[in-house]
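Milestone M4 deliverable, item 7.
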Amino acid sequence: MIRRHTKKLLIIALLITLGISLEFAGLLDAEEMLAVAREYSDHWWLVVILILLQTVLFTFALAGSFFLWIVAPLYPPLAAALILTAGGTLGGIGAFFFSRRLTDDWIARIENSHAYRLLHKQDNFFTLFALRVLPTFPHSLVNYSSGMLKVKLSHFIAAALLGLFIKSYVYSNVIYKAASSASQADQSVLMDELMDIKTFGPLILLSVITLVGVYLRYRLDKKKTETPDI
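Output delivered:
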């Protein structure tokens, strides 16, 4: 018989796999949903619905990121970034607590391990931020891993708010300009712009610089602990 904690881990693995698969396979029809959303774009409650839908999808490790293709063409970049950040952060919090609920037994087994203690000693805000702004990195993986490892909730929320806003604004800016141009750029042209180094390059650079800073701080702290007092 499969033990209880093993079942919980299998559930999380299946949810993360399903979420990543849906996100990259494009099984959700963004064009159809965008057409419906355009009819109600003047109503304030559409924003609430878009945030709630993202929250539900992200909570259960489903493809919440695909809402970028619905929100970004409808609203100016700043507004779109705020909507996407709200939905992504609320969904991340939901996934954070959901994964902790599922893995209590597993956490109890590893809380005395060296790896577990090391993660909790480090200030992981910058690590979480670096993963949030890194292009194509699955948010469900960040959400569920953070809940399983019981990282500080304040760091988790702050990193989600800042990281999601920056990345959402960058992508929303490109999509909104393409959607509102007179020529109506086709899908291939839009994807070329999104995959242009000028678009995602700064995000990668920001992520790498942050991770390098985390590593240097870790090495410095380790050196201080290893140096005996004179």
